[in-house]
Each structure stands twice: as C-alpha cells, then as structure tokens.
## 1
Amino acid sequence: MGTVTFTFTADNGTEDAADDVTGQSQPYTVTAGNSLALVIPGGSSIVTRVNQPATVLWSSNAALMAPSKEFDYRIELYEGNYANEAALSGRKPVATYTAGKDKNSVRIGENVLSKLSNGDTPAYTVLVSMPHPNAGGEGVRLSALAWIIVQAPPATARLTPPQSIYHKDTDGAVNINWSVENTTEGAPLQPTLTITRVTEDNNTHEVASERLSGTSGSFPLPLQRVKAGNLKDTYQVVLSVENPGEESPSTDSFPLYVYDADALKVQDDKGETISALTMDNTSKVSGSLPTVTAEIMQLRQELGLIEYIGINYDEYGWNSFKDGIQWLSSNNNAISVNYKQGGLYEDIRNFSFDSYLPETKMALSGLANGSATVTATHAATVCVPTYR
C-alpha cells in the first residue's frame, strides 16, 4: 500500500538524453481494498511461439489482508480453450506449478506449449488459484483464468537463382527453384510465386502468380521474345510466405535479365553492320614502287593492315557494367585483336581483362596471309555474332 506516480518519457527518436521530454501522472493511492481478490489483469491472452516459454502474471491482495496466513498459489495448465472454471471440471492438467504467497508470476518452460493455436484461438487455458485465507481448508479457493495463444515461428522464403541470371530470349525454360524453411508441422503454409516481366519501355506484365504446395519445388519459366527495338526484358521473381498472426510475410526475390538473342552485331568504323571484312594491301604495291626515301617511308605506313570494329553500341541501351564484350580471334598469327590503353593499341592477349566495355572500338591488325574468325561475345549471356 502507498502512493505511486508514473513517469512518461519521449526520447524523440534519438539516443541523446538531452532532448528527452518527460511528464508525470497524478499520484495514485494504492490500498488493499475491503475484500480478498485474485485477478489476472485484463484477463488477457498470452502469446508465445510453439515450444517456447511463457510467463503467467496475476495480482492479489491476499498477502496484505491476511499477512499471518501461509499459502501457495497453484497454477494449472490445460490443453484447449475453456471459457470458465466449470468447463475444466474433471479434466487433467498437462502441467501444474506452485508459487509462494509473495509471488505474482510463474514461468512455463520450454517444450511444454507444443500445440499450435488455430488462428487467434487459444491452445491452452491456465487456472491460477489459492485457498481462501479465511476459510478452514483448501475447499474454498479464489481463482482466475488466463489463455495462451501458441503461434508457429515465422517461416522463411528461399529462392535459388539459376547459375546465371542473364539469358537470351531463345533459351529454353528457366527453372526457378524455391523452398520454405523453418516450417512447423501443423502450421498452414501459403507460399506464392509471382513473376513480373518489365520491358524497357516500363510496361509490366504479370507472367505467373502461382499458389504453391509443399515446402520445396521447381517452377519452369518459359521466356518470351523481347520486343523489336528493345535490348532486354527484366523478370522480377518473388516468393512470399504468409505467416500467422501479425507477423509480416517472408519474401525472397531475384531478377532475370533476358536479352534479344539477335541484338548484338559487329560494325566497322563507319557504323555499318558487317559479317565479313577483307584486309588487303596488294593494290598499294602493284606497278612501280617509289625510290625516294620519303615516299618509301609513307608507303610503309600505308601498307599496315589495320581496321577498326566494335559492336552496335548506339542501337541499344547497352550497360557499361553489365554488358561486357569478349573478343577473340581464331587465328592470331593472321589477324590479332587489339585494345587501346593509353595511346597505343596492343594485342588483347597481353591483358588480363575478362571483357571490354561495349562502347570500346577494337583494332584488327593483319599480320600475315590467311584468314581468321573474329568473335564478339556478350559475356553475360554468351550471345555470339561472328564474322570472317
């Protein structure tokens, strides 16, 4: 018994106590009252996870009104949802606890609350009781009820992306592997797989919205052809699992980038698409040859066989980071592919680069009589146009 004042503090969302604002309630006087009572505040339900602990709280003025009486509280745990004490008559508790007269709580340990609730329906009923201090024995008791809602732990959605998230629109179906982890037996599972296709002109199309069953599986995603004039489509793959109660859904996602298989072309230094290129300097040495030193030096420069090529960078929205290009000559003794670093072109075999920026111009150098196939490969999708 006594007087109590409550203090309320707003921290304004910061850890700095200097900007905290506090306020106090009016004083409240607490008395034992004029009648014995045992109550569970609000008769509220206790919410816990399956096989996790739960604490049952109660309040009583018995120790103040009968300080000389010795007694213990008895706490009985029943499986099921019962509205009143009479409904518990004849039923056997699954667990029983005791607490001294100076206590107001008991902890139900782990691995006791193993039955799941159906939605918000309590899975267990708790009866807290004590002998009436003014009665002659245990026959007259004060009691109160509490209820326990047992929820499953939140399930976790898991997607396993394919080995590569970059594909051509001529590829076959892509298998989307999914699973739901941390499941609880008896808990309802509601996994949903949603796949949305987003085109480069920002149009969205829902490709799939599948209610899945079980805890794992694979969904075959057929790829659609990319619209003419667009480089690629983006598929957003999302797996979501609804969790019970007020838990947020668990989600996992990843993108798929699907390219027009015919988009990549090789172009010459005039920006024209080519499939073959002839490097020939025989016309420059036919007929009479110069005898003057200056003219001989000029002819030597003109005899060098160099052509500049690249991909059709200006036709599409190639990305400098995602759309690296790999270059390769099938016969480096005849024709080498060269990259300009600083002020000089050097054979790409002298570099350790995996790929080159899509806007890069490469120099072909004719080294000897012969032919070669030069290949430009979109590194992410292995999309390959070639020319000779």
## 2
Amino acid sequence: MCDEGGLYDRSPHELDASARQSAAPPGRQTRARNDDRARAWSRRIHQVVVATTVNPADDVLEQLARRLAVSCFRGSEEDVLDRVLRAARSAAADVIVELTGDCPIIDPEVIDRVIDVYLEGSYDYVSNGLHKTTYPAGMETQVFATSVLAEVAHLTHDPADREHVSLYIYEHPERYKLHNVESGLPEKHRAPRLTLDTAEDYELIAAIYEELYPKKPAFSLDDVLRLFDRRPELLALNAAVLDKPVR
C-alpha cells in the first residue's frame, strides 16, 4: 500500500494510460518494463491499471497484464480521455497518475516526486512536463483527480482533447490550478530522448537496458545520465528523432 494522500480519503492510484501500444515483441517487452518499474519501486503507487484499447491487436496486452497480475481496462481507441476516466472509475481511484506506455525507463523516484508535490499542495494538476520541460523526454508524469477528468469529459468534445487526456486541463490555466515540477538538471542532461516511438528510440533504450539492468534492475534516471557521461556516443542513436506537436 502507498502512503495515504493528504487531500483524499484513498491513496493515489496509478493509471498507465497509453493511446497506442505496439503489438510487436518489443512493444510487449517494454510494456512489461514500464509496469514493472512503476509497480515494484514506486513508494506512492497503490494500483496499476493498464488502459488499452478494444482493438483485437491489443489482446496481447491484456494477456500480458494478466500474467503480470496487473489490472487491465479496455476502451475506445480514439477517445482516450473516456478510456482513462472509465479505467479510473473501475479501480475506484480518486487520484490518477497518468503514465504512458512509451516511457519504459521512467524513474519511480520521479513519479513519486510529482505525486508528493500534488498531495502536499492545492493543485488541480501537477506535471513535470508543463511549459519548458526540464526532464528528459520519457519521464513525463501527470497527476490529477478523477473528478477533474470527469468534469473535462463534459466540457470538451474536441478530438485533440479526447486523444490527449489532460490537454484541456493544462490549456485552461484560468480554470485549473497548475504546477510544474522542475528537475534542477543541467541543460545537457535535459536533452536525451528516453521515450519509445521509433526504431532509433528502441535501439537506445535496448542499449541502456543491456548496460544497466543486469547489475541494477531498479536503475534510476541518475544511473542513465551517468551512463551517457561515460558513453556519450549512445546519444547519437536517436538524436535525429523529432517530437510531433500535439496540435
């Protein structure tokens, strides 16, 4: 069990809400890594729920979740907001910690830091990816109440808002109290891309696991950054990959 949250009757529940999951073997492996890291080493997370789609191609993800003894909720492929909201309700979650399946080396200490700021403050939404991101891509953590997401579900039917779960929240700072958690990392350590969208990304993440996992399965972001200091050539593996804008 995680610690009790100061703002809610229940402890925060974690929802791994990913819009798209690969049915290829690398996708299955990294999904397992993501859930394993969040569930096994986070101090704050009480329950993991994989929120995937009803697409038959994602049957493999439900089977994997079952083998890992992780809850799985299946919903709309296009309306990700509705999928995440219904997944939260299925787990009786008061608080959603939204992670995405393309972040297989997310650091549980980063997750817990964002959760702590949310629980200790009076915010509607806390993230480490608002405005100018000070963490490497792949460390994104978002925390907000299920009740806030339920409100958003009634307020917007914009396809972009429905695909990008929290987009409406952070685009309306006049309505919601937002907070960004900054890393304090030097500029060179903010630049690495640790998310998984392309073959180049996979090549880098595989290299990180080969280097760090055998000796320290619960390796941290600091371990990854020290690896890059020792082997800067690894950064070239996906340096040319560009992020796609949300809108």
